[in-house]
Amino acid sequence: FNEVDMTKILDIRQRRKQSxxxxxxxxxxxxxxxxxxxxxxxxxxxxxxxxxDGDRLIVKKYYDxxxxxxxxxxxxxxxxxxxxxxxFAEIERAIADLANKARSNSLALSDLQGGTFSITNGGVFxxxxxxxxxxxxQVGILGMHKIQWRPIALDEQRMENRPMMYIAxxxxxxxxxxxxxxxxxxTVKELLEDPESLLLES
Length: 202
Description:
11 strands, 6 helices, globular, alpha+beta
């Protein structure tokens, strides 16, 4: 687990949401930021983008990110292909298209296959903290949670209310050790807290 100060992302969304919507005909949500951060972290820690196939370890050099969405039957995890090659608007559009297909029960099997890593957002249901379940054969999944304003110590004297989110990483310990998992999650946190870096890292 770790926590992310969402101040800068909320500021960007507030300042850019109208122009982004007008230009791209899609809203600027949180998932594009998180997808970009995950891709940036996977590039630094490629073992989290791997899978075990029998007695083989396959490290993938592409980034097909599964995004959990809610359908009538429960959560499904369709895949955004080549997320590292997509801009923010393309990611948001891909997620919206997959979510609409999930809710209309029109997802194809190919939409659900082949993801290399997954993201799930329990925060949309009000979850403050939870442990996501691996979407095998993937070896990692990131859990997002509810944004909650909390007093944060800026230094020894100053406190400030900040919009904070807990994030969680579940991982396959056969492939990924604790040190690597912690550093991966810290990288995700650092990229999210400095959103401009997402343009450079992923």
